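Structure first, sequence second, as always.
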C-alpha cells in the first residue's frame, strides 16, 4: 500500500517537473534567451525542493503544495515568451508567496480559536479594508490580505462565540467591501460566508436572515454604485491575438495599469484555450483536497477554516472565469495564483499554507492514534 502511494507520488512529481522544464526550455531554444534557460532550471528545482524538503520540514501536505506550485509556475510561464524580465519578477513574487505559505503552515499549528485570535484578526482585517476609505491615496491592493484575516476571525468566532457574533463580523466586512465599491470581492465574501454558515450551523433561523441581509446589502450597492463593465467578447479576442502575436506592449493602456490583471490572458494567448482550460482544471483536485482536509480535522475551528479557504478559492476561480468571458458585469478579477499582484499572491499562498498545515496536523493526530493503539495492545 505504501509502495503504490510513493510510486504514484513519484510519477506525479516527475510529470510536473518535466512539464515545468519543457514549458521554459522550448521558448528558450527558439529565442536563445539566457533568462529563459535560467527559469528552465530554477522553476523545476524550486518545485522539487518545495515538494520534498520544505514539505517534510514544515509537515505540509505534499499534494496541495505540488498543485499550488504547478499553478504558480504557469503564471511565470504565461509571461516568459513575451517578457522574460516580467517572468523573472513573477518568479520572485512566487518565491515571496512560498514564504507566506510556510508562515501559514507554521502559524496554524499554534493558533487556536480563542477570543484573542477572534478580536485581533477581526480588527486587523477591518482596519485594512477601511484603510482605502481613511487614506484615499493608499493604492496597494489589500483586500485579499484583509479577507484572509477575516476568515480566520470568522472561523474562530463561529467556534467560540457562536454564529451571531461571527455573522456580525462578516457583515461588517461585507459592508466595507460594498462601500469601497469592490463588488466582486463582496460577492465572493458573501457567498463564502453563506455556504460556511449552512455547512457549519445549518439552522434556518441563522441562514435565512443572513441570506436576506446579504442580498439587500448587495442589491443596494449595485443600485448605488455603477459597476465596472467587463471587457466585451471582441475586445477579449483581439487582446488574445495581440498578446500571442506581439506581447504585453500591445495591451490597452487601461489593462497595463491594472497590477492585478489576470495572467490568464497571457496564458491563453501563448498556449491556447485548451491548455489553459487543463491548467484551470487543477483547481478541482486542489479544492477537493481542501474539503477532504476539512472533513478529517479533529477540531471545529480547523474544519471551518479549511472549508472556508477551499470555498473562497473555488468561488474566486469561478467568478474570475465568468468575468473574463463577460458573464458577470464586474471588472475582471485575477485567477488565484495567476496574478501579478504581490499582496494577492502572498494572501492566497498564506491561505493554502493554512490548509497544508491543518493536513499535516491531521496526519500527526492519526500517527499518534496509531501509536496509542499499539501501546494499548
Amino acid at each position: 500500500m505504501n509502495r503504490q502511494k510513493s510510486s504514484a507520488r513519484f510519477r506525479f512529481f516527475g510529470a510536473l517537473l518535466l512539464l515545468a522544464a519543457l514549458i521554459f526550455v522550448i521558448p528558450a531554444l527558439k529565442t536563445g534567451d539566457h533568462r529563459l534557460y535560467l527559469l528552465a532550471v530554477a522553476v523545476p528545482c524550486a518545485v522539487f525542493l518545495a515538494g520534498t524538503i520544505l514539505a517534510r520540514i514544515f509537515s505540509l501536505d505534499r499534494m496541495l503544495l505540488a498543485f499550488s506550485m504547478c499553478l504558480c509556475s504557469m503564471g511565470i510561464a504565461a509571461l516568459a515568451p513575451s517578457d522574460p524580465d516580467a517572468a523573472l519578477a513573477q518568479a520572485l513574487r512566487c518565491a515571496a508567496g512560498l514564504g507566506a505559505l510556510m508562515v501559514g503552515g507554521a502559524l496554524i499549528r499554534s493558533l487556536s480559536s480563542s477570543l484573542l485570535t477572534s478580536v485581533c484578526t477581526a480588527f486587523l482585517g477591518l482596519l485594512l479594508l477601511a484603510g482605502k476609505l481613511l487614506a484615499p491615496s493608499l493604492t496597494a491592493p489589500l483586500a485579499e490580505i484583509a479577507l484572509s484575516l477575516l476568515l480566520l476571525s470568522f472561523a474562530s468566532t463561529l467556534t467560540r462565540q457562536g454564529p451571531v457574533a461571527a455573522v456580525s463580523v462578516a457583515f461588517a466586512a461585507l459592508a466595507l467591501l460594498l462601500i469601497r465599491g469592490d463588488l466582486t470581492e463582496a460577492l465572493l465574501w458573501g457567498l463564502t460566508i453563506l455556504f460556511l454558515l449552512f455547512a457549519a450551523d445549518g439552522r434556518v433561523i441563522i441562514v435565512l436572515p443572513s441570506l436576506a441581509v446579504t442580498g439587500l446589502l448587495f442589491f443596494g450597492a449595485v443600485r448605488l454604485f455603477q459597476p465596472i463593465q467587463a471587457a466585451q467578447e471582441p475586445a477579449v479576442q483581439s487582446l488574445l491575438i495581440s498578446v500571442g502575436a506581439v506581447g504585453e506592449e500591445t495591451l490597452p493602456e487601461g489593462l497595463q495599469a491594472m497590477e492585478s490583471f489576470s495572467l490568464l490572458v497571457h496564458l491563453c494567448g501563448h498556449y491556447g484555450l485548451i491548455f489553459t482550460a487543463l491548467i484551470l482544471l487543477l483547481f478541482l483536485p486542489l479544492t477537493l483536497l481542501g474539503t477532504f482536509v476539512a472533513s478529517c480535522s479533529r477540531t471545529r475551528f480547523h474544519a471551518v477554516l479549511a472549508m472556508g479557504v477551499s470555498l473562497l478559492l473555488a468561488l474566486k476561480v469561478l467568478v474570475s472565469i465568468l468575468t473574463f468571458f463577460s458573464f458577470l458585469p464586474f471588472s475582471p478579477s485575477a485567477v488565484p495564483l495567476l496574478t501579478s499582484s504581490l499582496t494577492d499572491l502572498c494572501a492566497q499562498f498564506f491561505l493554502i499554507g493554512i490548509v497544508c498545515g491543518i493536513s499535516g496536523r491531521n496526519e500527526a493526530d492519526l500517527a499518534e492514534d496509531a501509536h496509542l493503539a499499539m501501546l494499548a495492545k
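Margin note: Confidence is low (pLDDT under 50) at residues 1-6, 226-260.
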